[in-house]
């Protein structure tokens, strides 16, 4: 380096690019890809069973099934349909030849485009330009007959197509083998977000058979934790993460119930952790890593620090005690709170409030979503412990603000 701080361009280059591909934390980046399909769906055995039950006759030569899957954003609808199609083909491989086509109707939003996509998947060289709907369907029929395979068509985000082209195609597809008195050529799975369902789609559900409607729920914090755990196990270097940090990430994603969000948060934390590494750092995800702001974060979440300004000064002291511990640790027990609160009171020369009052403050913090609590049974069966964590704030930032506010009060 020169005296004036100027470095040869090649050095600078090397430094800021050093971390790329270092792989201290991240072992398999593809696990965090947008369209990565997990080997296994975790924690969704109930809906998987329900979906499979709609295809109970698929092993038989004339068997077919239909299903409509709806649920909120990121509840695993697409993953469920994709893994089902993959698994069923394997499962029936020596009984019946099954193919599947997954069309996302957001990109193919007219019935014409949808049929073109299906044909394109089945017969990549098939000419589709200038052909009418009737001709396209005829080609599809011919291909299926020639191949003697059963086709599962998944129309994902089907509301887009229904809105532009109506539901005619659905009936055409379901009747694809009628002309040859055949049966069981095609199965249909429709997928849509629950929120965007309107009257039109409700009619479709009833015509597909309301017993074939599978509604899936948003993920609970446990479900999100299991998904984070799956991605961490498959994607990260062994020993770089703990179940506690994954729990905190899951708690941060919990208000949305969205699996994509927990994966995004984990990915962002990994990126941050990877890029802050130097010779001295511990190769492990830390509390601060999970508070990287995401671009698409709703404004109500994240670090709106003024949210605590109206707390009374005693409550602030309790919260400060929490923040100090949670800067380093993912969670703490209520017992820890009292101990640390005593230390803070001493520091600010204030009398401690009673156990009940402290408890009341903690409840209030939870209601304001400053902290999250979870009751865990202690191993060995000696009662239950309440664990507190702070998924939506960076404890360090909150502590600084509290210290600033307390300075004015005392
Ligand atoms: N049970 C699960 N196990 C493992 N990964 C899951 C599970 N559920 C969802 N995922 C993953 O979470 C992400 C979001 O899931 P998916 O795309 O299936 O949600 P979706 O319900 O289709 O959302 P949208 O309404 O936005 O289409 C995907 O990367 C998916 O692989
Ligand atoms: Mg989807």
Overview of this protein structure:
This protein has helices spanning 9-17, 45-53, 77-91, 111-122, 133-147, 159-165, 168-174, 199-208, 221-235, 243-253, 259-275, 313-326, 334-348, 355-367, 395-409; strands at 66-71, 98-104, 150-156, 186-193, 213-215, 332-333, 372-377, 384-389. It has 410 residues and is α/β, with parallel strands linked by helices. It folds into 3 domains: 45-215, Rossmann fold, CATH 3.40.50.300; 220-297, Helicase, Ruva Protein, domain 3, CATH 1.10.8.60; 303-409, Winged helix-like DNA-binding domain superfamily/Winged helix DNA-binding domain (Arc Repressor Mutant, subunit A). The protein has a 5-stranded parallel beta sheet, sandwiched between helices. The protein is elongated and about 90 Å long. The model has no long low-confidence stretch (mean pLDDT 89). The structure holds adenosine-5'-triphosphate (ATP) and magnesium ion (MG).
The secondary-structure class comes to alpha/beta
CATH class of the largest domain reads Alpha Beta
- Give the helices and strands as they follow along the chain: HHEHEHHEHHEHEHHHHEHHEEH
Low-confidence stretches: none
Overall pLDDT metric: 89
- Percent of residues in helical segments? 40-55%
Proportion of beta-strand residues: 5-15%
CATH topology of the largest domain: Rossmann fold
What ligands can be seen in this structure? adenosine-5'-triphosphate, magnesium ion
Whole-angstrom Rg: 28 Å
Largest sheet: 5 strands, parallel
């Amino acid at each position: 380096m020169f005296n004036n701080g100027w470095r040869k361009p090649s050095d600078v280059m090397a430094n800021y690019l050093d971390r790329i591909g270092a792989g201290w934390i991240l072992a398999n980046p593809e696990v965090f890809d947008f369209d990565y399909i997990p080997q296994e769906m975790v924690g969704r055995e109930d809906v998987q069973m329900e979906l499979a039950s709609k295809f109970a006759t698929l092993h038989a030569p004339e068997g077919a099934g239909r299903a409509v899957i709806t649920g909120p954003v990121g509840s695993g609808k697409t993953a469920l349909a994709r893994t089902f199609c993959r698994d069923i083909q394997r499962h029936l491989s020596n009984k019946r030849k099954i193919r599947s086509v997954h069309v996302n109707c957001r990109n193919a939003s007219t019935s014409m485009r949808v049929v073109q996509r299906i044909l394109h998947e089945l017969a990549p060289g098939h000419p589709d330009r200038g052909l009418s709907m009737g001709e396209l369907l005829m080609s599809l029929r011919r291909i299926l007959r020639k191949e003697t395979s059963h086709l599962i068509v998944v129309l994902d985000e089907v509301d887009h197509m229904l809105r532009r082209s109506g539901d005619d195609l659905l009936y055409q597809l379901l009747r694809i083998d009628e002309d040859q008195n055949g049966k069981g050529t095609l199965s249909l799975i429709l997928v849509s977000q629950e929120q965007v369902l309107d009257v039109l789609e409700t009619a479709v559900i009833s015509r597909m058979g309301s017993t074939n409607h599978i509604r899936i729920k948003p993920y609970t914090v446990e479900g999100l934790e299991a998904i984070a755990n799956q991605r961490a196990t498959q994607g990260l270097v062994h020993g770089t993460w703990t179940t506690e940090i994954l729990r905190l990430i899951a708690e941060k994603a919990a208000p949305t119930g969205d699996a994509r969000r927990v994966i995004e948060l984990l990915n962002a934390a990994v990126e941050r952790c990877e890029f802050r590494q130097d010779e001295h750092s511990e190769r492990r995800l830390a509390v601060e890593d999970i508070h990287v702001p995401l671009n698409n974060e709703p404004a109500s979440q994240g670090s709106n620090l003024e949210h605590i300004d109206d707390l009374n000064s005693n409550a602030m002291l309790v919260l400060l005690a929490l923040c100090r511990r949670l800067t380093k640790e993912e969670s703490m027990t209520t017992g820890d709170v009292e101990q640390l609160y005593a230390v803070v009171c001493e520091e600010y020369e204030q009398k401690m409030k009673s156990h009940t009052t402290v408890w009341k403050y903690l409840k209030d913090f939870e209601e304001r979503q400053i902290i999250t609590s979870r009751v865990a049974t202690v191993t060995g069966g000696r009662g239950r412990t309440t664990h507190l964590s702070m998924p939506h704030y960076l404890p360090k930032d909150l502590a600084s603000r509290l210290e600033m506010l307390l300075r004015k009060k005392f």
